[in-house]
Each structure stands twice: as structure tokens, then as C-alpha cells.
Amino acid sequence: MNIESQQLIQIIDFWQKSIDREKLLDRAVLKDINLKSKEVIDIVGPRRSGKSSVLKLIIKNLNLKDNFLFINFEDPFFITNNDPQIIEEIISTFREYFNKNLEYVFFDEIHEITAWEKAIRKLRDGEKFKIFLTGSSSKLLSGEIASLLTGRHLSYKVLPLSFSEFLSFKNIEITNAKDQILNEKTIQSAFEDYFQVGGFPEVVVSKNQELLKNYFSDLLQKDIVMRYNIREKEILEKMAVYVLSNAGKIISIESLKEMFRISFTAVSAYLEYFKEAFLIFDLPQFSYSLKDQNKSSKKIYAIDQGLANVVSFRFSEDRGRILENIVFLELKRREEEIYYYRTKNNLEVDFLTREKNQSKELIQVAWNLDDQATKDREIKSLIQAMTELNLSNGTIVTYSQEEVVEIENKKIFIKPVYKWLLPNQ
């Protein structure tokens, strides 16, 4: 037996035993994953969002004993052993030394292996076992993987914890309207924590926000600098901090080009890398013209309000924009088709959701409506947009206010964010 085989046996054994080493808390995405499907299942999201835990929960929920293989390719061994051939060697080593009857394969952070898709396609076409993958690149969600795996795969997204999941992690169970009424003060207090620390699971459990600085560094270094061989690391980091500091605002490539004194091409590439690594999302302005929509200025949102609070300048001081970022992320988790909207007379509404080519809901976000001028402005924007889009209802999400406003046969529901975030609200 050569040294590499011995190492593989040790690595396989280590990761197999990791399944029982940690306490696992339920995630909402588990209800969506089609475990009976024969297609490859890929689960994507930012580093430390809980993808590994989702794989381990699947293993436990399926009650698998010794007929599965679980490997995390972030293991240091794979830094120098990242040729796609290593995947076949892992499979053969498992069958020879662990169990010939392999029925399930779980590959965590598969993108760490060079040209992994060829090896996975070969396994999928030639083997009978079920394959699960995770990765920290949004490319795994794109048409790119569909073409690489010739279409036969199902993709699921794991983002940092929703507020509902955050409550579960804090052992606050809200299953119906009665629970919500009886626990309202507890829920409000929990939201204050969520507002500050965000939803990365380990940060929530450990209450250690310093971890977020490490996550930010790892994301930049491993998912961008190393992957794309970036030389201007300092400029990349400064731009990332600037973008996070301005979450909820329109980001101009021209202004970034002037600010950081790099080319238009470099700015565009860096922003694309930030999106691929799940550091940010962008949001287009809605237009019935796809061409105009693609040309429109885009608003930027952070992957997590806790991360943005820790690494950015001044973002934590603007509570309204943090609130807006939280609402955006919840809409992403709900798999909504989202835009921002400008009326014909240039009034802005934060979010428009659409479904099957029809406008569905308009949502405005404001920290509070104590100032009458602010309230009038937010309502005016919504009413104008509702009229243009032929919608009869709109929503304003606030920190704590609740009211129903009726104007011109239209209803605007003003809701506290902690209620809006909970299911069936």
C-alpha cells in the first residue's frame, strides 16, 4: 500500500466520523430537497452558511449507516492533490477498505477539485449511487453547470439563517399565531440580535462576531484571490469593504473606476467575482424591456447584515439600510423574482416581486414613519407604483409600526419587520 492510499484511508475515516461530532440544527432547505430524484443534487451558498451541515442532516435523515461516503475537499490534503483523478481514487479506496456497497456519495466544496465536473459526470453516467455536491460559487447555480452535467442536476441554495431559523437556533419555537402573540417581546428582543449579528450559523451559536472578519478574509482569499490569481489584493479588499458599506445603494462602475484608479474591465470583473463568491447580490430596475432592464443601474445588497456590520464603514449606523438588506435577503430566500421600481415621475419603490410575467407585490422599507413627511413620501411612491402596475395592495416594512392605510381604493399594509419575516405573515 502506497503512502497516498494510507492517507486516503485516514481522510475518509476522519470525514465519515465527522457526521456524529457536532450537534446539527434543522434548516428550512431540507424540506425542499428532492431526495428521491435520480439527478445529481448540488447545494450552493457562501462559505460557513451551513452547507456541510445540510449534507450531514441528509445523511442522518436518511438513517445511513456505512453505505455512504462523505468527503470535504477543503481538507489540506487536497491542496496538492486536486486533480479530478483523485475522485475516482477516493471511490475505489472506499470500496476496498470500507464498504463495497456504496449507495450515496456526498462531496463537500467540490469546486476545490480542478475540472471536477468531468469526474462527476463520469460517475453519474457510470455508477448507480446517488450524488450530492456542495460548492461556494454561484456558478454551480448557473447554466454553466447544467451544460457541464448535461442538464441532469437539481440546485438548491443555502444562505445564512433566516429570522425564522435564527429563532429555532435560539430555541424559540414559533409554530402558529398564538405562539407569536404570547412571545412577542421575546421575538422583538431576538430580532435586535439578528439585526446586529446576522445569520451565519456558527456566529449565532457562539455569539462571536469576530468570526465574521475571518469569513470575509477567507472568502476574498480562497474564493477570489486564489481562484482568479488576483494581484491587486489590497484594491480588491478595499472595493469589497466599500461595496458592503454601501449595501442598498446603486453602485456605479464609473465611480468605482475613478475611486480605485483601475480599469472599467477590472471593476466589472471584481464585482462579478463578489457575486460569484456570494459576498453580494445585485438588483436590477424593473422594465418591460429586457434590454433596458439589463442596461439599468443596479442596487447592491450584502450576503449578511452581520458581515456588513463588522467589516464595513458606517453601514451599522444606517439602520434603515440594514433593514432593507434584511428584507431583500428574505425575498431571495423565498425564491422571489425581485426588482426595484421607478415610477414614471421617478419615485422609487424598494422592491417589486413578479411571478409568471405578472407583478405580484410592491414593498417599501422604512425604519419608522414617525415623521409625517416621510410617511407621506413612502405612501405616495407606493400608490403611484400600484396604479402603474395595476396592484391593489402594497406593503411598508418598518421596525415596529403596524397599521393599514386605505387610499383611492388601495390598501397599504404597514408591518413590523419581525412579523413580516415570520412564515405566513
From TrEMBL:
InterPro entries linked: AAA_14, DUF4143, P-loop_NTPase
Domain DUF4143: 221-367
Residues of the AAA domain: 38-167
Pfam families: AAA_14, DUF4143
Segments traversing the membrane: none
Name of this chain's protein: AAA+ ATPase domain-containing protein
Native organism: Berkelbacteria bacterium GW2011_GWA2_38_9
